Amino acid sequence: MSVHSEIKKVTTETLRKMKFDKEKITMLTAYDFTTAKMVDAGGIDAVLIGDSAANVMAGFETTLPITLDQMIYHAQSVVRGTNRALVVADLPFGTYQSNPEKALESAVRMMKEGGAHAVKIEGGKEISKSIKKIINAGIPVMGHLGLTPQSIYKFGTYKVRAKDEAEAEKLIADAQLLEGLGCFAVVLEKIPADLAKKVSESITIPTIGIGAGPDCDGQVLVYHDMVGMNQGFSPKFLRRYLDLYTEITGAVAQYVKDVKNVDFPNETESY
């Protein structure tokens, strides 16, 4: 019997046990009550309130503009729609990098006001003091290595990271550091599959991949990408399970036609 079928509420310990039992972990983003409710009902293990809300909900080019207050609002909405899944929220750019005290304050606000069960932050050794401060306060932290979108202007590209030996060795070291600091899991974004496999085998905490091959302990996708609501984003790692853009625009077009032709509402749809 799988861990998934045995438990009622997913916790950080659940994810650790799933890795131990070799059961893959599933994760999707959500930014609002309705989506969270559907994703949770579908049996997802963890919901990520990603700072990707800046892109898919607000239309920004990068994740950098979204604020902590805005992320807290999204977290509140998602938590109200989630019964079973573990809810993890990103701390946005500028809320944890400068000093450990600010990082802790940001994480506390996300937990107290947002209602999240854990926070996710990007980086390794460079932000180790902030991670340690947050974890020492009793707040679960999920790490994030590889392509870290908050550092996009440093990288200058969204291409695959850690293809050269030096960067790959640093990523492995950072993953082991995150485990040592007490992180309960780590996202590996857009790195070579063989490296992701090596990282996953080198640490005892779960790895959650996005564009990192099949050997991670789990996978995460942006909900809007997975259900085909976004048309302009088609990375190699993305599998679309629906084409909602076409379905929704078609439904809207039909609604417009019906209203214009006085076909809606009809007698049965009127009081």
Automatic annotation (TrEMBL):
- Record bears the keyword Transferase: yes
* Gene3D superfamilies to which the protein is assigned, alphabetical: Phosphoenolpyruvate-binding domains
Keyword Transferase on entry: yes
Among the GO biological process terms of this entry, one is:
methylation
A cellular-component GO term for this protein: cytoplasm
Q: Where in the cell is it found?
A: Cytoplasm
Q: How is the cofactor bound?
A: Binds 1 Mg(2+) ion per subunit.
Q: What is its main location?
A: cytoplasm
Listed binding positions for 3-methyl-2-oxobutanoate are: 51-52, 90, 120
InterPro entries noted in UniProt: Pantoate_hydroxy_MeTrfase (IPR003700), Pyrv/PenolPyrv_kinase-like_dom (IPR015813), Pyrv_kinase-like_dom_sf (IPR040442)
* Cofactor list: Mg(2+)
Q: Where does Mg(2+) bind?
A: 51, 90, 122
**In the record, what terms sit under GO molecular function?**
3-methyl-2-oxobutanoate hydroxymethyltransferase activity; magnesium ion binding; methyltransferase activity
* The reaction(s) this protein catalyses: (6R)-5,10-methylene-5,6,7,8-tetrahydrofolate + 3-methyl-2-oxobutanoate + H2O = 2-dehydropantoate + (6S)-5,6,7,8-tetrahydrofolate
Pathway field:
Cofactor biosynthesis; (R)-pantothenate biosynthesis; (R)-pantoate from 3-methyl-2-oxobutanoate: step 1/2
Positions annotated as active site in the UniProt record: 189
Q: What is its EC number?
A: 2.1.2.11
Q: Which UniProt keywords apply?
A: Cytoplasm, Magnesium, Metal-binding, Methyltransferase, Pantothenate biosynthesis, Transferase
The entry's function note states: Catalyzes the reversible reaction in which hydroxymethyl group from 5,10-methylenetetrahydrofolate is transferred onto alpha-ketoisovalerate to form ketopantoate.
Assembly state and interactors?
A: Homodecamer; pentamer of dimers.
Give the family from UniProt: Belongs to the PanB family.
Report what the protein is called.
3-methyl-2-oxobutanoate hydroxymethyltransferase
Source organism of this protein record: Chryseobacterium limigenitum
